[in-house]
Amino acid sequence: MNKSAVVIRHIHFEDLGTLGPVLQARGYRVQYVDPAVDDLAWLDVLAPDLLVVLGGPIGAFDDALYPFLAAELALVERRLAAARPLLGICLGAQLIARALGAGVAPMGIKEIGFGALELADAGKASALAGLAGVPVLHWHGDRFDIPPGALRLAATPACDNQAFALRATVLGLQFHLEADSGQIERWLVGHASELAQAGIDPRTLREQARLAGTRLAAASAAVFHAWLDGLDTAS
């Protein structure tokens, strides 16, 4: 029987990326939802086997500026309360942290570029173990606190909290493991203003993406498969 995944996508080019082929290979039927224009009231958030909440260039507490975030947060809260599988990336992870009562706040700097993670002991024993020494894409200015009861999995010198896990069913990633380095040009164009404001040369990111290449793609697929294997075991 095919499984289903609902994917909340805030900006078109920040899609499933390398996670897409993994879900396809495992028989998932994927449905994208755009919370900025779609009416979330129709969505049965408990029905899909997996809910993925992707990133976006807004803050997890920006409800007053972007009212749809309140409805999106309510969906995340319902999913968490039912202990249903949930993956959050960047903004998605921050929304999960907020829903669990953890803080989310600006770091005071932008962390943008490819760099390796520092895996915590819990991270080394998790699905993220395959990322040891592998540069991944960071693209954020906010950070989350680790939610109560969750395990801190990874850090970087610029950001002490890069990933958390709650039970086997919830994974929050501050970094963009899903980003396809072969599609980095879409990110460079889409976030050109942010790069200019941060004083980051897109040529630097382009070269970092080229060097990350196939090694990152393989590691990303392995991590996502390992986490989904854990979901299958837990179900």
Explain this structure.
There is one protein chain. With 235 residues, the chain is an alpha/beta fold. The protein has one domain: Class I glutamine amidotransferase (GATase) domain (Rossmann fold, 3-Layer(aba) Sandwich). Helices cover 34% and strands 24% of the residues. It has helices at residues 19-25, 68-81, 91-99, 121-124, 184-190, 192-198, 202-234, and strands at 3-8, 28-33, 50-53, 86-89, 104-115, 118-119, 136-144, 151-155, 163-166, 170-173. It has an eight-stranded mixed beta sheet, sandwiched between helices. A two-stranded antiparallel sheet has the order 5-7. Helix 2 (68-81) packs across helix 3 (91-99). The mean pLDDT is 96.
Which key features would you list for this structure?
single chain; 235 residues; alpha/beta; Rossmann fold; 8-stranded mixed beta sheet; two-stranded antiparallel sheet; 34% helix
How many helices in DSSP terms? 7
CATH overall fold name? Rossmann fold
Unreliable spans are none
Strand order of the largest sheet: 2-1-3-4-10-9-8-6
Kindly name the structural category. alpha/beta
| Oligomeric state | single chain
Beta-strand content bin: 15-25%
Mean pLDDT: 96
N-to-C CA distance: 15 Å
| Radius of gyration from the alpha-carbon trace, in angstroms | 16 Å
> Secondary-structure element order, as H and E?
EHEEHEHEEHEEEEHHH
User: What would you call the shape?
Assistant: globular
CATH homologous superfamily heading: Class I glutamine amidotransferase (GATase) domain
> In the CATH hierarchy, what is the architecture at level 2?
3-Layer(aba) Sandwich
